[in-house]
Amino acid sequence: AVVSTQSKQWYQRRVHGELKREGLCLEDQEDSRTNMSSKERDEKILDFFRNVLKAYDANNDGTIASEELGSILAALSRPSDTESVATLVKRFDPENSGKITWNDEELLLVIALMDVEDAKTIDDSIFSVGFKTFAQDGDSFLTPAQLDTV
Question: Which of 40, 87, 116, 118 has the maximal Cβ count within 10 Å?
Fold first, then answer.
């Protein structure tokens, strides 16, 4: 799937960023279409998933209910079957507290790298978060280059 390939490329750029910080890679390349470096683009993608999860933080305490993870994944059109959700809950709520810290970069990366099952089933609220996250001018409109990043 196209999204899966893009996700893998995004992850590779993320790894490239880690190697660059350790002095093992050449300078970060800027995307001429968006005037963003790959690091900036990767951070924008993480911000998107961070903003999505934050929207589900009912108490504004930095957590989401573990039992809500399935519906959040479904809204993102990510695998939300019982087994997939249980695996994630076990990994990100190891004390079985019923809460998952949504600003955990590992969680954000895992969700970002999950395959989109059907883009047509992504919830409208997710698109709203996407527009607010990616619209560089804060005008809720995306240029073709910004849409390409999404």
Answer: 116
